[in-house]
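Continuing the batch. This is chain 6 of the set; chains 1 through 5 are on the previous pages. Same settings as before, nothing changed between runs. Recording input and output for traceability.
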Amino acid sequence: MGTRIKIELGRRSINIMFVDAKVNLKIFPKKFYVNARKEYELLQELSIQGINVPKPKMLMDVESSAILVREYIEGDFFRDAIYRYPPEKIKKFLLDLIINLRKIEDLNIFIPEFSTLYKNVIISDEKPYILDLERAQYSGRPIIPQLLGMLIRLCSNKKVKEKLAKILHIDKLKDAAQRYKKTRNIKIVLELFKNTDQNVG
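Output for chain 6:
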């Protein structure tokens, strides 16, 4: 009996995912060993803090490659979930993601990919998991304004805008992003969410 395997090419690596075994091999060329080690160590740190990331299993240093062995998370990519999920489920994973991002900011870690979120966040059982930390760096810069900026851009799609408007004060996203950058007051961001009910869907 076989096992499902997925393969994806990254910027500096290739991901081989053994779906049924829930194992992801992220293979870097040897010259990017430092990148592999940094990502492994960051995954360890965030996992210990209870932040939703794939659990790191080991870092293998082989002749021509560095292999990061981590948990495989199956689910929907962030953008796909925004398009497919009903508003109340979107609200749930957005709030969860914002809380996780704040915990990461408190560790002085900055993740630049959050301005696009093409494949960097996956939603599994309605929980958001941050997948790639290869470009993350220790910095006091905030991550949450990037996420709010991306939500603003997603509102250019009429259907997405209508959906997000049911759960968020979308007209306040830009102002909230600017105020959060200055104050780091998480209440500014949480107050963007409306008190939704069973009529949302």
